Amino acid sequence: xxxTSPAQAPQPTALIRHIVPVVAGGAxxxxxxxxxxxxxxxxxxxxxxxxxxFETGPLLLIAxxxxxxxxxxxxxxARMAPAGQPRIRYALALGGLLLAMNxxxxxxxxxxxxxxxxxxxxxLTIPYAIIGGGTAVRVMARAPSNR
Length: 147
Fold this sequence. Notes:
The structure is a single chain. This protein is an all-alpha fold. It has one domain. About 70% of the residues lie in helices and about 0% in strands. The protein is built from four helices and no strands. Helix 2 (about 55-80) packs antiparallel against helix 3 (about 85-110).
């Protein structure tokens, strides 16, 4: 049995280092979305969840802030990427997860929302990931290296 000194402490596996940024970016997106949905619902800005059909105004508001939160989450996923890795890949990985979640959401809301809302959520998810990841790449490229 060998003992490791503090300087030789075991490193997290490579897979974990690649999963954590995507999960953290997704958690940020999900947390902001849930809190905002609940706050706007509590203040009657959005209709109640049992309301049969949403109107255009609230749908545009929902699409707007969820788009911003998706960009922010993808930005954070890219910023947290391990050094030496293409950061945009982490934003796109989160974008893929968000796309899958949007597809589930389309099925759940089918008939309650207009088709344009469902299709725009699907169509804009990957562009949001590209915007979020791209801004992270540009910010990190300008930042002075402290490593």
